[in-house]
Design goal:
There is one protein chain. The chain is 24% helix and 25% strand. It is elongated and about 80 Å long. The strands form two sheets. It has a six-stranded mixed beta sheet. The protein has two domains: 57 residues, no CATH class; 101 residues, Acid Proteases (Cathepsin D, subunit A, domain 1).
Length: 173
């Protein structure tokens, strides 16, 4: 039993701060003495398969942290309208479209919503509705997405704000 325990300890790699080890030495010593003298039984061991993400964390093989690109623009096509610069905002959780742009698309109706948007300046805005399942073309890919339509002034240079959901497509190209 003792040799099996020693072999297990040889395979064990734990990252614990040295100060924590020193503070808990009496506790560990008592625990090890009870195990070695068979006063305390170790429970049965089980193997556990970890998914790639957790395995990377345990083995300290984390991906390199990249810089935050901030906000940037992407060209998008909405039905018959091409927009050269759609603002892709990493902080945004919604796709936002001005009412004037919605009218250019000539869709019939919006789905009513009870959503209240609170902007950075803490002002509350009530959307006109939600445009559901709009096909958006980015490069050669099509996405069906929902847009919140808001009665606001349209920025001619960047009329649409798309959320971080479009960023998950980077692996497709």
């Amino acid at each position: 039993m003792y040799q099996k325990f020693v072999n297990m300890l040889k395979k064990l790699h734990v990252n614990v701060p040295f100060s924590e080890v020193l503070a808990n030495i009496p506790t560990y010593a008592k625990f090890l003495k009870e195990i070695v003298s068979n006063k305390k039984k170790l429970k049965d061991f089980a193997e556990l398969s970890l998914i790639k993400e957790y395995n990377a964390v345990l083995q300290n093989h984390l991906p390199i942290k990249m810089k935050d690109p901030g906000s940037f623009t992407v060209p998008c096509q909405f039905e018959h309208l091409l927009v050269d610069k759609c603002l892709c905002d990493l902080g945004s959780n919604v796709n936002l479209m001005p009412l004037s742009f919605f009218r250019k698309l000539k869709f019939a109706n919006l789905v009513p919503t009870q959503v209240i948007l609170q902007l950075v300046d803490r002002s509350a805005h009530y959307p006109m509705g939600i445009l559901e399942d709009l096909l958006v073309k980015i490069d050669k890919f099509y996405f069906s997405t929902d847009f919140i339509v808001l009665d606001m002034e349209e920025d001619i240079s960047m009329p649409i704000i798309v959320s971080r959901g479009f960023l998950a497509t980077r692996e497709l190209t």
